Amino acid sequence: MKTDGKNVFLETEGDAWFIRDGNRPYEEYQSKGTQFLDGFLSKTGLPKNGRGRVILEIGCSSGYNLAYLCQRHGLKGFGIEPSAQAVQVGNEWAAAHPDISVHLVRGTSDELPFEDEMFDIVMLGFCLYCTDRRYLHRTISEADRVLKHGGLLLIDDFLTPVAFKRPNKHDPRLFTYKYDYAKLFLSDPCYSLIERTACFHNGVASFSEIQERTSVSILYKENIDDVYQFSE
Known about the structure:
alpha/beta; seven-stranded mixed β-sheet; 9 strands; globular
């Protein structure tokens, strides 16, 4: 029987990843996606007072990225993460810093425990590449469901011209999948690519290394009436 990657992350690999690479120091580390979004929000002049601005990070670890963005831009932050240890650490940190609004829940990207169109910003930071393929389209659907029209979607992940499947070096039961995941949203006319930057995974600085190419993409979710023109 094929391994269910979601259950592996919930049972073992989520905590293993957190111990191995996810337990980052607050205020000392921000992902490339977080830095890019921070600069974008500052540049575009979106309100920083937090009125009506709610952000979700899918695959949030202990919430250090959320905490940074919430503090910088007056956002109310929610995160979902399969690692029980990461969620515990994050919520303990949030309880000790009540001036920064961050709340984490344990769960997976294919079943988000949030209301429709609840968020102004949804972040998918290096989680799609390790999402079990049977849950990929559910994840895309769930991210779309909870994002408001007029909201922003950030995707920080691989940027390969073709789809690659590779064994997960940390757990032989799992695979990683490299692709340009923005394409899965951009096939919908309600999504527009408004900002993108190219990066490199693991410090590799050569575009010739196809599988090391990554990007941070910011998509805007258009209002339906703006993209579907009425015709008789």
